[in-house]
């Protein structure tokens, strides 16, 4: 669907047919390339994680089934199937009244909202409340999408683009105060650890490709791989570091004409108003700082799963999806890998407890969707089970029911109003 949506969107913005066709095709091909590289990461890290678990004798009983299974379960219910029309409808209303700057074309990822809505439905057995939860979650991702857009442009260089992605955007909300805290820690606040600085200091050893190979070697050793298997894993992780940014560049080649046309149209018809194109955060997971921090987080996440008392979730299916969980921390920390790893460690520590807490509900949801759990009696996932918004929705739905979810909706609407109306008015005065 995405190439067709991009093509039609380009035509609506006044792009010539030839350029619109090319843009749609390049965006579609770029995402195919990104998915191929991410699948490579999944098929290499998954077996390595399993081997690491077997080698160290980890004993955790709730399996992380991975986001593809979670998306299928979320859309596999009558409630979840309504997430896309609800998302499109709310986006249209918000744009009409100027309450968001984000035009979201990433409609597939409304499954994240279907996930929280289905959890609340499983918790309360109230279909209407589950649907209301989906709507409130949609409001939250547009609020976060509008908030993160300036940092995306200043760090990644992507103009008029944002990521209303319910896995990635919440970590941005946490990174802001954590960055302010680190700025006040003597010594740590002076450490520069972005990919460019690391490469200057360490030469070839700081090159992102070499860093990927080294991290692959470390993971291979921890997994008790043979010498040949370790080398194979090292080259594969190095390949991900090289290939993923190239696939993103191809995708951006298709998006740039759309972004320019959108900016021109908004300047003409709505002077003084910006428009962000909402896309999948997969566009930034190939950034060297994101990938480096994410690969470091693979063994750290497994260690956390073992040492945290009370955790029952075994990270597995979503280890390769860690870049999606941390990618929007990176622009806040200006690419500082050390700060990103510290923040991601805190984030994953809390996230594993959330994933453990919601596992009974998620297992029930999977059963209701006729999902084949195999020999597993309890399942969960890091995406979106370890995201703080999931914990908030379930907690408020359980304790305060309609009032709690409604309160969250009021906060989201107030945030959108502040970002897009009051803040703009304040800047003028």
Automatic annotation (TrEMBL):
Keyword Nucleotide-binding: no
Membrane topology: Multi-pass membrane protein
Bilayer-spanning residue ranges: 29-49, 70-99, 119-144, 204-227, 275-308, 314-333, 340-358, 399-419
UniProt-annotated location(s): Cell membrane
Domain PTS EIIC type-2 positions: 1-429
Pfam families, per database record: EIIC-GAT (PF03611)
Keywords from the UniProt entry: Cell membrane, Membrane, Phosphotransferase system, Sugar transport, Transmembrane, Transmembrane helix, Transport
InterPro entries: EIIC-GAT, PTS_EIIC_2, PTS_sugar-sp_permease
PANTHER family, per the entry: PTS SYSTEM GALACTITOL-SPECIFIC EIIC COMPONENT
Entry protein name: PTS galactitol transporter subunit IIC
């Amino acid at each position: 669907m995405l190439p067709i949506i991009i093509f039609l969107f380009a035509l609506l913005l006044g792009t010539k047919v030839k350029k619109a066709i090319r843009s749609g095709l390049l965006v579609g091909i770029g995402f195919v390339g990104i998915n191929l590289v991410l699948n490579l990461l999944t098929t290499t890290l998954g077996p390595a994680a399993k081997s690491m678990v077997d080698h160290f004798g980890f004993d955790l009983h709730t399996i992380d089934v991975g986001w593809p299974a979670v998306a299928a379960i979320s859309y596999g219910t009558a409630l979840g199937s309504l997430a896309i029309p609800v998302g499109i409808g709310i986006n249209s209303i918000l744009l009409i009244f100027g309450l968001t700057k984000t035009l979201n074309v990433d409609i597939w990822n409304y499954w994240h909202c279907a996930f929280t809505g289905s959890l609340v439905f499983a918790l309360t057995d109230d279909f209407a409340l589950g649907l209301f939860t989906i709507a409130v979650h949609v409001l939250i991702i547009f609020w976060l999408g509008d908030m993160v857009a300036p940092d995306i442009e200043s760090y990644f260089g992507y103009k008029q683009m944002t990521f209303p992605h319910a896995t990635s955007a919440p970590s941005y909300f946490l990174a802001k105060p954590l960055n302010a805290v680190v700025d006040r820690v003597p010594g740590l606040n002076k450490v520069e650890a972005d990919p460019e600085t690391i490469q200057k200091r360490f030469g070839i050893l700081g090159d992102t490709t070499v860093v990927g190979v080294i991290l692959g070697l470390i993971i291979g050793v921890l997994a008790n791989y043979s010498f040949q298997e370790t080398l194979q894993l090292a080259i594969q992780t190095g390949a991900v570091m090289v290939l993923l940014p190239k696939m993103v560049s191809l995708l951006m080649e298709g998006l740039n004409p759309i972004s320019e046309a959108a900016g021109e149209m908004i300047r003409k018809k709505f002077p003084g108003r910006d428009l962000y194109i909402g896309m999948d955060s997969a566009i930034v997971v190939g950034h060297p700082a994101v990938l480096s921090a994410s690969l470091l987080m693979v063994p750290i996440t497994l260690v956390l799963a073992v040492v945290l008392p009370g955790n029952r979730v075994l990270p597995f299916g979503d280890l390769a999806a860690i870049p999606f969980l941390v990618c929007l921390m990176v622009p806040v920390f200006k690419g500082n890998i050390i700060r990103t790893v510290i923040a991601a460690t805190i984030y994953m520590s809390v996230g594993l407890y959330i994933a453990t807490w919601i596992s009974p509900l998620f297992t029930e949801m999977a059963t209701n969707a006729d999902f084949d759990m195999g020999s597993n009696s309890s399942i969960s996932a890091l995406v979106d089970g370890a995201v703080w918004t999931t914990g908030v929705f379930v907690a408020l739905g359980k304790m305060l029911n309609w009032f709690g979810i409604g309160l969250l909706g009021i906060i989201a609407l107030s945030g959108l109003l502040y970002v897009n109306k009051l803040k703009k008015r304040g800047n003028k005065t």
